[in-house]
Amino acid sequence: MLGNDSPVASVPGEILPRHEFYSYEAKYLDENGAVLEIPAKIPREISERIRQTAIKTFRVLCCEGMARVDFFLEHRTGRIYLNEINTIPGFTSISMYPKLWEASGLSYRDLLSRLIELALSQHREKQRTKYTIELPAGAASGTLEP
User: Fold this and answer.
1) I need a labelling partner for 123 at 20 to 30 A (CA). Which of 29, 41, 57, 73 fits?
2) Whole-model pTM?
3) Going by C-beta distance under 8 Å and a sequence separation of 6 or more, which residues neighbour residue 66?
4) Per-residue pLDDT tens digits for 91-122
């Protein structure tokens, strides 16, 4: 996921573990512990459902900037299950998040630039926001700035 008010979803990727399950060892210690399939080799209709569900999840949780939304796919039935949302995904040049965006047409450099633009936009918006507190009768009212 990438965006503030108008988030977009990258192509989905798939982790294919080479162990019984995707353990810490398979993820971080064994260089052959898993294969990253980017983009995932799934039907276009399922890919689009995953992307739309990721966007809805991001919006419902009022996320901004970036996140990785993880799903399970039941290949036999085509059912998708929301697993988790990771608002601080790995971000090295070999991490899943930047690889997904690269496969979606956004280079690592451009992804960094876009994230900076989103952060600056969010900062400007917060600077414009003022909060007014209504106090009980007889007390002075005030304005707070973030």
Assistant:
1) 57
2) 0.81
3) 1, 2, 87, 89, 97, 115, 118
4) 887 789 999 999 999 999 999 999 999 999 99
